[in-house]
Amino acid sequence: MKRTIPALAIVSLILFSFVLLFAQNQGSSLNINVRDYCDPTTFNAAIGPGTCVRDTTNGSITFPGFLAELGADKSVGAWRFAPDHAKVEEGATLNLQSLAGETHTFTRVKRFGGGFVAFLNTASGNLTPAPECAQMVNGNLVPQPPGADNIFIPAGGSASTTLDHGEVARFQCCIHPWTHLTITPKDEHHEEVR
Fold first, then answer.
1. Mind listing the pLDDT tens digit for each residue in 13-23?
2. Model's pTM, two decimal places?
3. What are the backbone angles phi and psi of residue 153, rounded to the nearest 5°?
C-alpha cells in the first residue's frame, strides 16, 4: 500500500501535466488583420464594379495613387497583413479579419513569389508566381482554387486556419504579392526559436 500511493501521485502528476499542456495549446491564437485603403470610386472605375467596397470616412488611396506608390516602391504600404511577423506557440490558430475594401487571399507558401495578377507581379518585381498561388497554362496565369491553404477573404470577411507543429509558416496574398506574413514557432519555454 505504501508503494501504491507514491505511484498514484506520480501518475496523477503526469496526467495533470498533459492536461495542462493540452489546455495551453488549445488557447493559443493570433489575430491577423487584412488591410488595404482602396478608394471605391477610382478602383471600381479602373478595374470593375465591386472591386472596392469600403467606407472612405477615414480617407483612401486612389487607383492612380496606388499605381504610383507601387511603381516607386514595388509595394503599397496600406495593402498588408498586420502583423507581418509573429512568433506563436506551435499549433496556434490564426484568426483572420478583413478590414479591407478588396478581396485578398491568405495563402500558405513555401517561398514568397508572384500571385495571379500579372501586372501586379511585374510592378512589384515578383515575376515568378508562387506555385501555391498560380500556375502558367498556355502562357496565362491561372489562379489556384480556394482551399484550406489558399483562403479567399472578401471585404469585411473573416476566416481561421491552424499552424502545423514546428512550422515556420509563410503566407502571402496571391492578388497583392508584396503582402506577406512570416510566423515562427516558440518553444515550450516561450522563447524564440533561432
1. 333 333 333 43
2. 0.82
3. -120, 110
